[in-house]
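Hi X.,

You mentioned you wanted examples for the new student's onboarding notes, showing what a folding record looks like when two proteins sit in one file. Here is a clean example. The first protein comes first, with its sequence line followed by its structure tokens.
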Amino acid sequence: MYGLRSVTLISVIYFFYCVCVAVTAKDTTANIAPGNSVYAYYGCYNETTGDPSVGNKRALAGGSMTSSTSMTIQTCLAQCNSGAGNVFAGLEYGRECWCAPDLNAFANKLPDTNCTLPCAGNATEVCGGALT
């Protein structure tokens, strides 16, 4: 996931639904992207839908979602940066881009190895993982 960079913080965040470092996908090596001048990598997180104890809210709720068969990390980051208040950008299922002001407190950080789905628009990038 990717989060907005902040000049007032020592550690910058870049929030991403699920992203992996150097995983093999479809005979190519997909890698984590470093983010851009606005967003920095934050980690691989589980989705919280389907959990009635948290009201079935998404990990990134209160924002917007776009889906594209040509989705890349940079496409998603640009999409989220174009909307006001989108602190977080997350990718799921290789093609969905989620933009939101907050990360659900019930979303848990997972090992990057849980995120292995290549981006629909660039198989060398990782854009999510299996729903957990």
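Then the second protein repeats the pattern, sequence line and then tokens:
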Amino acid sequence: MKILNQVFGERLFVANRLEAANAGISATLAVNPEYGFGSLLARIDRRKRFLEEVQRASVSNEFVTETPKAWLSKWTVSIGNRMQENLLAPEVVSRLSNDGSKLASDLLISKSLFFNESKWLIGSDAWAYDLGNSGVHHVIASGANVNMLIIDSQPWSEQAAADSVRRKKDIGLYAMNFGNAYVASTAVYGSYTQVLEAMIEADNFE
């Protein structure tokens, strides 16, 4: 999580992160691929509705000044250009923060959606076994533009014994068979730079 925060900052959205809004959701359920994917789809749908709200606001007369409208209009024109969206987002948020109107306050409740987010699901090596792997299949087969970070923390010396009891699947190889996935395998303590590059390349892969 720390590395992702350092790389993507305000743009980062981890679909299966447990926060206050997840009250009542067990940690076991939250790390399930299906739960995270459902949360991700809900986020994508929410942003679509947010874009519509912004477009309506850009021609509204409910702001105190005309400044927010000008910046909202500029931002809506940039939709679809991720770099431009993210470049303008802080400026739009700043103008809305200075306006003081109810409409500006309402938009600021979802200010993170002004950024074209880097969407991630984070899982453990448990996803490489049967139950978790079925969820991974569902995510990959959907064709959705989502990043998956799977952390395998099991020592190599223990893998042979574990795999003799239940076979661990190679998720990277499995994903490559679909032909529409960027796959990288890195070791955090082997090359930190390689880890960063893999994360950035995964985010840029459409």
